[in-house]
Amino acid sequence: MYFFKDRFMTKDEVRISPDDRGYYFGDGVYEVFRIYGGKLYEKEAHMRRLENSARELRLPLPYSLAEISDLLERLTAQSELDEATLYMQITRGEAVRSHPFPAGAESVLMAYCSEVDRPTRAMQSGISAVTQDDIRWLRCDLKTLNLLPNVLAKQKAMDHGVQEVVLHRNGTVTECSASNVMIVADGMLLTHPANHLILHGITRGVVLELARGLGLRVREEAFGLDELLGAEEVFITGTTVEVTPLVRIDGQPIGSGEPGIVTRRLQTAFEATFSA
Ligand code: PMP
To answer: What is the DSSP letter of 257?
Structure first.
């Protein structure tokens, strides 16, 4: 089941215009929600981020936030999926190709649910990553459809036979191609501050709050590649990856080369936020 423009339909019924600005310019915003036990996880936080991305891009939402929230609930219920994700995007609508905002165009919303299992194996054993320059623009806090640098980074991971890329600007670690990154160094949990250089991950926010609740020392402070590679533990956070250990970066083992104790504690605490 899809929601497209103003109604529910099957995927086959969706008709996307070649004039959609999402198609020409990547001119739109998106969100990926997790569904656990048939329920949208952290819906309000995703809605706040959506609202912020749209406002900063001066992209009019096609419905009120309450209406969008309601239609996402209906889509979730209709999908009858237990473990799933919900993808939603809003583009600046359809208009003859021309850069300025089109007069009179109406934003187009598209959303659907897909069955996606939790990444149990990766969370258990950890994954590997390589590092790369962060070549993105300076508004990485906005969740826009323009994902080419992220696509190129992820492909680099695939080419190297690893799962993620840790991005850095002149040696300062920002985040990953599709997740945030945290390290444990000298017993302290560190992650890049939530400014314009990273996406303010919903999972990042949940994990930081859990870490503080567990009495861990937490600092939202930038760290360098040396600290990353020399960390006791490294893990990534994200809607689909949850809390996944990074056990090898650029071919070097992190700490013991096994998921660390702080990571394990945070995985357990994170799981408790959605399991009964
Ligand atoms: N950073 C980037 C670049 C991402 O694409 C994502 C996931 N979409 C994240 C961080 C994690 O954000 P969230 O926890 O909201 O999924």
So the answer is: S
For ligand 1, what atom is nearest to the CA of residue 238? Answer: 14
- Distance from residue 261's CA to the centre of ligand 1 (Å): 23
Residues 93 and 7: their CA atoms lie apart, in Å, by 16
Does residue 112 register a pLDDT over 90?
yes
**pLDDT band for position 193 (50/70/90)?**
very high
Range of the domain at 215: 120-272
Does 204 sit in the ligand 1 pocket, CB within 6 Å? yes
User: Which of 86, 115, 144 marks a domain boundary?
Assistant: 115
User: How far is CA 137 from its chain centroid?
Assistant: 17
Instruction: From 163, 179, 204, give the residue whose CB has the most ligand 1 atoms within 8 Å, as the site to mutate.
Output: 179
Ligand 1 pocket, 144 CB below 6 A? no
* 0.90 exceeded by pTM: yes
Concerning whether 5 is annotated as a catalytic residue, the answer is: no
Q: Do 130 and 109 belong together in one domain?
A: no
Question: Domain check: are 161 and 258 in the same one?
Answer: yes
Structure tokens at 47: 């809605």
Average per-residue pLDDT in the chain?
98
Question: Looking at 70, 96, 115, which one is the last position of a domain?
Answer: 115
User: How far is Cα 206 from Cα 203, in angstroms, rounded to an integer?
Assistant: 5
Q: Are 114 and 1 in contact (CB under 8 A)?
A: no
CATH value at residue 182: 3.20.10.10
Domain count, the chain: 2
161-180 tens-digit pLDDT = 999 999 999 999 999 999 99
Catalytic one of 5, 39, 43, 143: 143
Structure tokens at 117: 């299992």
The pLDDT, as a whole number, for residue 250 is 98
**pLDDT band, very low/low/confident/very high, at 181 (cuts 50, 70, 90):** very high
